[in-house]
Structure formats: structure tokens, C-alpha cells
Task: structure prediction
Amino acid sequence: MSLEQAFVLHTPASLKWTAAQEKSLSRDYPFQDHDPTDPALFVQRTYLHFLWLPHSIMPLSLFIPSLLRIRGTPNLAEDQPHPLHAFIEPLLLSLRAAANKYHNELPQILADGGGACEAEESMMWYALGYEKVDGSAERGEHLTGEDSAMLEEKWRSAWLERMEQREVQIQILLYFLKLSLPGPCTPLPPVEVPPTDNISFISPIKPSRSRKNKKEKPNLIIPSSIERLESFMDKLSMWQLVSLMNISRSETMIHNKNERDWMQNFCEDVVGPLFKSKLPEQCALLRSKLFPNSPFSDEPPSPGPSTEKSLHGSRSHHSSSAATGSQSGVATRAPARTRSLSVSLAQEKEKERAASVGATQDKALQRALTRQISMSRTWKGKDRSAAT
Result:
């Protein structure tokens, strides 16, 4: 196993810095003294750089190529896992752990003003300081203390929300990398699941004392990498749905159909070029979640590999059944047609009879009503000549 050095920077200079230049240098970067040859430290700090630093200087399209600088030994057997598995497993999170990180742990550290002084916390304070400078310039200067505190809290919540979105994208890339590495995929470490069978709430029978005193041990399960990857995909899909619901109707009319959101850009520009050839099924699944086909659109959905096979099989089955039906049912088509024609003629005759009977009844009813409702005052006597 070796760490491929892409570039080597020679820091010694022929000219010395002046005292004023030395004071103007920024020395708040938390990882100044590090061993560039340690692969575990390299993977950890690469993850922290791409997570906390801005996208303009650390684009996600370079995250996986940076981690792939760790090469395995040339004589590595096919049944042995890639050494990169052991370095990225401490960085893998579940969806619940990622949500707890940005909704509970980091807000508590920000509220307390510090934590355990870990490497990620130091990187967070470093990024927050520069983000705060950019955000504070846009705020108004004529605000009270309460208004500025509320604005500060609102800005931090929006910043943590953006960082959570970045975390989800990085977790998707890490799980894609784990599944695409050569060799067998190592299982994830087991996770403790607390017991959920509380019999006292379900059974009307009171539990015995031995059952009360007995403490149930938590269950240990081995999570699946594919299931965790799909859970993060669902998180992106949920964010996309919420963003579409928040768009007003006027913005929806102006919104271009060909315009993509940041989740679709991540799928097309980052995940696709890196893993489409290695993991086509997972890439197609992510695309189906972020590019849903509307039921009101005229364009048919793009069939996948399994859909094309099923369509091909159904067409071949339909053609074979049609061929056999055309050979065996030549003699039975004519009687069926004549029978249906006779039935239709008989139905038409019955309809004509019913219409004629109804017309005569309507005419008779109309005459009777005319005689009863006649309001004429002239007396119509019989003709005298006819009487004589």
C-alpha cells in the first residue's frame, strides 16, 4: 500500500519574509503540522477539506480521485479487500447519525462555544470564521441586540443546513466508492439496536418480577452498504420534493423545464462520470429518484434494462400467441361476426319499436291534456243543416 504524491511543493525560499509580511500571514489553519505519508490521516483530512471548505476550491468531482491516490500493493490477491476500505469506514455514517450530527451535536457545540477539540471541530471553527466574515458584511449595522441575535441564529441554522446537504452528498460518494473498489466488499461494523419489545404495553398480563429484573441486551446487526446508500438517495429525493412544494405558482411558470437543481447536477456531473461504468444499477436508481417522470407529461419514461427485457419478452409472447390464434381461429371468425351482426340488428329493431310506442303514447297524452286545459269561451255548436 502506498500514497501517490501528485504534487510536491518546495516551501524553502531564497528570500526571507519581512516582519510585516510575517504578521500578515494567516496561521489559523488547523492542520499545519501533518504527516503527508500517513494514509489514514490523509483520508481523514481529505474528507474534512471537501466537507467544510467551499465548493469553489474543493469541488466534489475531485473527492473520489483524491481518495484513489491510495494504491494497493501490486501482489494483492483477488480475494483480499482493498486497503482503502479500512480508511473510509470510520467516515461512513448512517442517515440517522448524519441527521443527529447537524441537528443536535454541532448546534450544541456552537451554543457551548467549544467541544472536545477534535479534528473536525477545529475544521468547523476555521470554516465558520470565514463564513461569518462573508455573512456579517451583508447584515445591517442599525440593529438591536435581540434582532442581531435572532439573525445570527437564523444564519447559523441555514449554514448548518447547507453543510448537512454537503455531508449527504459526500456520504453517497463514499458508499459508491466502497461498493466499486476492486476485490470483495468488506462488511460494515455491527451496530447496536435497542430492544423494542415492551410487553407491558401490549399484554394485559402483568409481567413477573423476574422479567422486570431481567435486563434485555441490545441486538447487534450488520448494516448493508446498499441499503444505507439508498437511504441517502431517498434523503436527496425528499429535499427535492420539499423544494418543489415551496416554489410558488408564478415561479413554476417561469421555471425552465431543462433547468436542473443542485441535486440533479450532483447526479449528472459528479456521480455519473465517476461510477456509471462500475455501478450502473445504483446510478440508474439515483437518477430515477432525482429525475422522476411526471404522469402528466407526454414523454414516455425511459425503460431500464429489466424493463426492456420484459417488453421484448411480452412482444415476442404476444406475436407468438397472435400467430397461433390466426392459424387456429380462421374458421371461427365468420360465425362470430355474423352472430354479433344479428344481435346488433335485433337490438336496433327493439330500440325502434320502443321509440315508436313511446311517441304514440306521448301524442295521446298531449291530446288529453289539450282537451282538459282548453280555456276557449266560444261555444261550438253543431251545424243546423247537419242537425236537420
Notes: The CA atoms of residues 196 and 352 lie 73 Å apart. The beta strands are 2-3, 70-71, 191-193, 219-221. Confidence is low (pLDDT under 50) at residues 295-312, 317-340. DSSP finds 16 helices and four strands in the chain.
